[in-house]
Predict the 3D structure of the following.
Amino acid sequence: MVAFVDAVLALSEDLRDFPWRRTRDGWAVLVSETMLQQTQTTRVVPRFHQFLARFPTPADCADASVGEVIALWQGLGYNRRAVNLHRAATAIVADHDGEVPDDLDDLLALPGVGPYTARAVAVFAHEQHHGVVDTNVARVLARAVAGRSLGAREVQALADDLVPDGRSWAYNQAVMEHGATTCTKRSPDCGSCRVAVTCAWRERGGPDPVTGTAFTTTPQSTFEGSDRQGRGRLVAALASGPVAREAVADVVDWDDPDRVAAMLAGVVADGLAVVDDDLVRLPG
């Protein structure tokens, strides 16, 4: 495993240049990690700059209405993330004097912050000693280190054990980068892989150990015609102003009244909209 860690650390000298890799500001890291969930980096970069220009601190975000945050989020999808980020900013102001905490338990207590995001902030903002596990990391560890499928606890324990003292930021960034660019899900580039000499899967052969490994990506349902598409259309329309309740079906282009009503109820329940006097609008 020492050889694997050394090979990964060598990769850290060639990371792609992203704005969130140039900062140790906890708020900027939290914003980036929230945006990057299920969204490509190319879409996130411009929105990351726009968001921080409008909300440079948790206090700025908390002082705004959740509707303003949702409106600025448009184009990134999964709008519930914007609601959770606003809630997290409010908690940071109320409970941590406006500073993103560095304690893992405090991070996990923030609304909408799960195990991955909490560790990502702890490592990428505060350089603490944790393994950060996303789908890319789980894939690399299953193939290159274990050579077999791994359960959730195994992946996290292995990730934590591999972090070298004093190099948590560089190591975790490099493992994630390797999984995103070389040790990819469908077409791993084993021929140019600089970790290949230590790869357990290459040595043992057999089926791809990613199959059955925790945290690896599961296929998403088709977007076209989905509830996700309808929700997105409605929230995008609300960003321009209120929509009459009776017009929601036209906005989402559905002709099933029951489906429209269920979708609207879900949007309201998730804090993405409110209904007042037969008008649907973003939360105040």
In short: The mean pLDDT is 94.
